[in-house]
């Protein structure tokens, strides 16, 4: 008898030591920009008893680079984020990503979206810059009309409704491609995108008169990868014991006492607080299970925002045979069929690399993710043959595209605000569930959803709030709107 109870006592003591050992103040779930910056906020407020739990073998998340090209002719390319979007004008507000990029000596080139471009259609090189400029004017008109709607407290509609109401009704392949050159940034079509929120998103990042940073963009060509800026920043304050890499979270159990996560290998780690920075796509697709399930108001918010997909498809050739501009626009009769091309084999970019890439978005991304690489490559060669009828397009020396939509760690590229998503939904998307479970990441940013700076600012904000919770043993919850209702309900 005494023997048995001694063993029981020992087992209990060991169990106790183990839980205490793994019990952190804060678990940061995901090591992308939001996770790293949340950790930095905690550190800056004197809290170092946190753990970043990340599935991949490095920090950076959707800052993801790859060595690409034939043997002996490789270059680092960006599969995910590539631009610092909206930099700074004069002494105005500055994109916080620009500050970090400069601090860590990131190599980047000025990206000239609107002037360094050539236009093509199904007959080859054709100048339709007049149509291209009209599409930009129509977009400006769309954002102005959105501002009027906000002022008059009118209901949101789709960007397509907005375009039609300002008189822009693209029909020809050239008109559709010119319009696409604006909506590719939302990774979805105007039919799928909120008129008001997309106008706000544009203004808050690019329009200095509306509080934006600037209309300038820098494209990272750093051969350490764009991720370098966040990994170098992490090195300034993180120690290895504060990061658990190769650790995939399966479940998040939460209560008023704290949070316990279970990893794919069965290990449990507990914390007083947790910040989930997983992408909206991960939250939508049950790749991580919450116990108990998230409340109805939270689930409605998660499923009402959209995860878009933005896909870059890279080709390398022996020799450059394409445009000398940074960009090319190709107008196919099918909207969204390989419309945007970017050359990297350029002075100030990656000269001599032989690399060119096309971008597709939204439903078209999903379409190609279901195809084989060989099938997609054949379609691209076909389009290049159409764009350059006088050149026999050679076989590429390398080919690659990432499948963001199918990847269980992302399930898309970044969030996009649809017209059925209303401000109270956003309030709920951002809100904590109970006092212990918090959310951060690009999708939670009302002004900068989709962007790196959105992820940064959410990490900063939520990290600061939790630091206060830990220090003062008390948390001030973010607002929640339990029932999101219509001002004017439907009547039949
Ligand atoms: C193709 C593409 C192009 C883009 N272009 C730009 C651009 O040019 N400029 C710009 O500003 N923004 C761009 N973005 C958006 C930008 O990359 C994101 O907004 C930002 O990186 C999101 O950071 P985050 O910390 O919110 O999320 P993430 O970076 O997604 O961080 C979350 C982390 O959680 C990890 N994770 C997921 N599931 C689990 C799990 N179950 N267990 C453990 N870990 C898990 C992920 O691996 C990831 O590291 C682009 C994104 C993509 C994909
Ligand atoms: C993570 O896994 C990769 C590949 O499986 C391995 O090379 C690396 O050493 C691991 N890193 C850590 C910190 O466990
Ligand atoms: C934008 O609005 C202006 C002023 O109403 C109008 O003159 C112009 O034609 C519009 N442009 C486009 C492309 O719709
Ligand atoms: C966007 O900026 C324009 C000015 O360029 C402004 O007229 C408009 O009201 C703004 N739109 C919104 C939705 O704030
Ligand atoms: C499971 O993963 C964690 C974190 O990566 C690691 O510390 C632990 O040793 C692993 N456990 C087993 C049983 O493999
Ligand atoms: C392609 O060749 C045709 C016929 O020789 C010529 O008219 C056309 O200008 C050429 N196009 C280009 C882009 O060089």
TrEMBL record:
FAD binds at residues 54-55, 249. It is an enzyme of class 1 (oxidoreductase). Its EC number is 1.4.3.-. The keyword Kinase does not apply. The keyword Cell division does not apply. It comes from the Eukaryota. SUPFAM superfamilies: FAD-linked reductases, C-terminal domain, FAD/NAD(P)-binding domain. Keywords: FAD, Flavoprotein, Oxidoreductase, Signal. Residues 33-460 form the Amine oxidase domain. Its cofactor is FAD. GO terms for biological process: polyamine catabolic process. Residues 1-19 form the signal peptide. GO terms for molecular function: oxidoreductase activity. InterPro entries: Amino_oxidase (IPR002937), FAD/NAD-bd_sf (IPR036188), Flavin_amine_oxidase (IPR001613), Flavin_monoamine_oxidase (IPR050281). PANTHER family: AMINE OXIDASE, FLAVIN MONOAMINE OXIDASE. Belongs to the flavin monoamine oxidase family. This is Amine oxidase. It comes from Mycena albidolilacea. The lineage of its organism: Eukaryota, Fungi, Dikarya, Basidiomycota, Agaricomycotina.
């Amino acid at each position: 008898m005494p023997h048995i109870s001694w063993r029981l006592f020992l087992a209990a003591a060991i169990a106790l030591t183990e839980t205490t050992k793994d019990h952190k103040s804060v678990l940061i779930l995901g090591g992308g920009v939001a996770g790293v910056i949340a950790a930095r906020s905690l550190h800056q407020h004197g809290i170092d008893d946190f753990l970043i739990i990340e599935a991949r073998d490095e920090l950076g998340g959707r800052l993801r680079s790859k060595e690409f090209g034939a043997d002996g002719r490789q270059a680092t390319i960006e599969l995910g984020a590539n631009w610092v979007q909206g930099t700074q004008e004069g002494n105005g507000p500055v994109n916080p990503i620009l500050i970090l990029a400069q601090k860590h000596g990131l190599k980047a080139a000025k990206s000239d979206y609107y002037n360094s471009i050539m236009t093509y259609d199904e007959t080859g090189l054709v100048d339709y810059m007049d149509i291209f400029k009209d599409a930009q004017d129509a977009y400006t008109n769309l954002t102005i009309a959105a501002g009027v709607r906000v002022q008059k407290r009118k209901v949101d509609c789709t960007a397509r409704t907005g375009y039609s109401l300002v008189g822009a009704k693209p029909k020809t392949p050239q008109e559709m491609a010119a319009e696409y050159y604006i909506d590719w940034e939302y990774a979805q079509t105007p039919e799928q995108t909120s008129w008001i929120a997309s106008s706000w998103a544009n203004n808050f990042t690019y329009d200095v008169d509306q509080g934006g940073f600037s209309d300038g963009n820098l494209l990272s060509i750093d051969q350490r990868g764009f991720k370098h800026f966040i990994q170098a920043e992490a090195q300034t304050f993180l120690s290895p014991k504060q990061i658990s890499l190769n650790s995939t979270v399966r479940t998040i159990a939460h209560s008023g006492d704290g949070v316990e996560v279970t990893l794919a290998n069965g290990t449990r780690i507990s914390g007083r607080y947790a910040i989930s920075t997983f992408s909206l796509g991960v939250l939508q697709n049950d790749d991580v299970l919450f116990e108990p399930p998230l409340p109805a108001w939270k689930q409605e918010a998660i499923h009402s925002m959209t995860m878009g997909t933005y896909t870059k498809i890279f080709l390398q050739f022996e020799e450059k045979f394409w445009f000398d501009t940074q960009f090319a626009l190709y107008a196919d009769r099918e909207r969204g069929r390989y419309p945007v091309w970017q050359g990297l084999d350029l002075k100030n970019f990656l000269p001599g690399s032989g690399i060119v890439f096309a971008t597709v978005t939204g439903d078209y991304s999903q379409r190609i993710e279901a195809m084989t690489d060989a099938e997609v490559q054949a379609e691209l060669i076909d389009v290049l043959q159409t764009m350059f009828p006088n050149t026999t397009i050679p076989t590429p020396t390398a080919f690659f595209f990432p499948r963001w939509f199918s990847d269980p760690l992302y399930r898309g590229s970044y969030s996009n605000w649809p017209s059925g998503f209303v401000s109270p939904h956003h309030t709920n998307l951002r809100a904590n569930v109970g006092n212990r479970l918090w959310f951060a990441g690009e999708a939670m940013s009302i002004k900068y959803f989709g962007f790196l700076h959105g992820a940064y600012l959410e990490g900063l904000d939520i990290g600061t709030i939790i630091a206060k919770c830990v220090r003062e043993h008390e948390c001030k919850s973010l607002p929640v709107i339990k029932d999101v209702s219509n001002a004017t309900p439907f009547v039949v």
